[in-house]
Amino acid sequence: MFGKEMRRVSRRGFTLVEMLVVIAIIGVLVSLLMPAIQAARESARRMSCGNKLHQIGVAAHAYHDHWQRFPLMGTFSSDITSNSPYKNYNASRGSFMARLLPFMEEQSLYDMLNFDLSGPTDHGAPDLCAISMAQPGDALPGNGIRFETVCDGRGKRLRSYVISGLLCPSASIMVGSGQHAGENVREAAALTTYAYNLGAADMVNASGACAQYANAGGYFKFTNHPGMAPQGLTDAGFNSSGVAARGIWAASLDDIQNVDGAAHTILIGEYLPDDSAFNAGDSTIGTIGGDALRGWMNFDTGWNTTNCPVNHPMRGIDLIWDTEKYGPFGPCNDREIAVCAQGFRSDHPGVIQVVMADASVQVIADEIDYAVWQALGDRRDGTVVEAAMLSP
């Protein structure tokens, strides 16, 4: 080894500055990619949501094939002074969605329901975990046995069954189980993000709040009937411009096709239960009317009107209001004012989706002309809305 020059190989690593530069470049690339990734995910969620709407529309048509009309809401009578036996505590016998279960591959759940029972919950009495075979006469004041207190054989309320086909994956309530965080998953009402279209309704309230939309801008102006029903509470089709009412009436296809056409009339659309006056499922905060069990099973859930513009901003259950984004808070943004709280909205950027009465799905832009929006909700105004009018 003498006489030989020893060579030392020098291995140079990254300096701290170089590492920071590489990390910064990676961070920039990730920040550029994230919006595209998020957009792709939302596109997939919206497609899934639209597919679910289509399946609900197909189920509604299957129901119509059997009963010759679309399913009723669960309110048999809204007139507490009438002679109808179906009033007050024994008026509620499930939602229109409960009636669609056999046509949505939920036959086993449907078979556990007992439509001879009535009532969402027995205020002032404990909600007994009644079995589905309870008799009609069991639904009496004070005994705690109601349509929505029925349980399965393991003691779980049927109202708490989460049905994925009734939930849009983009909706902000989709945290875990489809129920509100912290609730008892064996008791709390499971939610839905889809609602019947009642068209334009008389949403005028005692305070006069949100007057610009309370009567749908006067759009409901036919002269051959008494006018639109207050908050959709009617048993007569001539008081409802949409496809159903909160009483014992729902449209048939003939009611729609003979005037506007099924492809030009909304059947069911998206909504966010946390932003709704009547459709919320939160069992701790409550809703208007004092009934906090407004999940998919409740007789008075899943209905909206077209009075308010699409995706009108709303202060929901979380009571957060973004003044910088939406401006000053007003009565049309208040969840406790039903005028706009019963409006169609979604968490899709700039649009909602609806299924028409022919079971086709349409995308509606936030900026849709108000008169066109009313025409889509009205089954018999004679207006044919073309696809180009849905996105101005």
Order of helices and strands: HHHEHHEEHHEEH
Report the average pLDDT across residues: 78
Helix content: 10-25%
**Count the helices. How many?**
8
Number of strands: 5
Gap between N and C termini, in Å? Answer: 87 Å
Spatial strand sequence of the major β-sheet: 3-1-2-4-5
Indicate the low-confidence ranges by residue numbers.
Answer: 77-89, 174-178, 281-292
Strand content: 5-15%
User: Which word captures the global form?
Assistant: globular
Output the structural class: mainly alpha
Rg over CA atoms, rounded to whole Å, is: 26 Å
Could you describe the largest sheet, including whether it forms a barrel? Answer: 5 strands, mixed
Provide a concise account of the structure shown.
This protein is mainly alpha-helical. About 20% of the residues lie in helices and about 5% in strands.
List key phrases describing it.
392 residues; mainly alpha; 8 helices
Question: In words, what does this structure look like?
Answer:
The chain has 392 residues and is mainly alpha-helical. The protein has helices at 16-67, 96-100, 107-112, 211-214, 253-257, 323-326, 338-341, 370-377; strands at residues 194-197, 266-270, 303-304, 351-356, 361-365. It has a 5-stranded mixed sheet with strand order 3-1-2-4-5.
